[in-house]
Write a structure and sequence with these properties.
The protein has helices at 13-26, 37-44, 96-111, 125-133, 149-157; strands spanning 4-7, 52-58, 61-73, 77-87, 116-117. The protein is of the alpha+beta class. It has one domain: Aminopeptidase (3-Layer(aba) Sandwich), CATH 3.40.630.30. The protein has a 5-stranded mixed sheet. Strand 2 and strand 3 form a beta hairpin. The protein is globular. This is GNAT family N-acetyltransferase.
Length: 159
């Protein structure tokens, strides 16, 4: 199947959100998505956008995305974080995910960053195998740490 990969546009964000919701369901958190189309547009297409998004399109339908943003490492300097690489269930196994992944790495190279990083669920063995075969390293001795809005509020309120 023929597809094109291109930079996302504002008018793509409704379809991007649909894929984000599909990913949440795949990751067994169907009710976790809070972001809106308006937020995606506001944060991704402002004068200083917070992220860059690639979309994969088949016959005017977005069937995959890769969303990245800059981070700063105190050891490495500027890096890119791959927040999500999503391929619609109907397109898995077609090479589309590999193509999006390659696009992210080409983008990182063009930006001169010293590292690209992302997280993957420990039960997503297909993705883990793919990443390891590509030369990526899994850092198994690190924990992902997060605090949600309520946790921040409670912590600050207790100060």
């Amino acid at each position: 199947m023929d597809y094109i990969i291109r930079d996302a546009r504002e008018q793509d964000m409704a379809q991007v959100l649909t894929l984000i919701q599909e990913l949440a369901t795949f990751e067994k958190e169907p009710d976790a998505v809070e972001v809106t189309v308006d937020e995606l547009i506001r944060e991704g297409f402002a004068e200083h956008p917070l992220f860059h998004c690639f979309v994969a399109e088949v016959q005017d339908k977005i069937v995959g995305i890769a969303l990245v943003y800059y981070r700063f490492s105190t050891w490495k300097g500027r890096s890119i974080h791959l927040e999500d690489l999503i391929v619609s269930e109907s397109m898995r196994g077609t090479g589309l995910g590999s193509a999006l992944y390659a696009e992210v790495l080409k983008y990182a190279k063009s930006k001169g960053v010293r590292r690209v990083e992302w997280v993957v669920l420990d039960w997503n063995t297909h993705a883990i195998d793919f990443y390891e075969k590509s030369g990526a390293k899994l850092l198994k001795d690190w924990y992902l740490v997060q605090m949600d809005k309520e946790g921040v509020h409670n912590f600050v309120a207790a100060l």
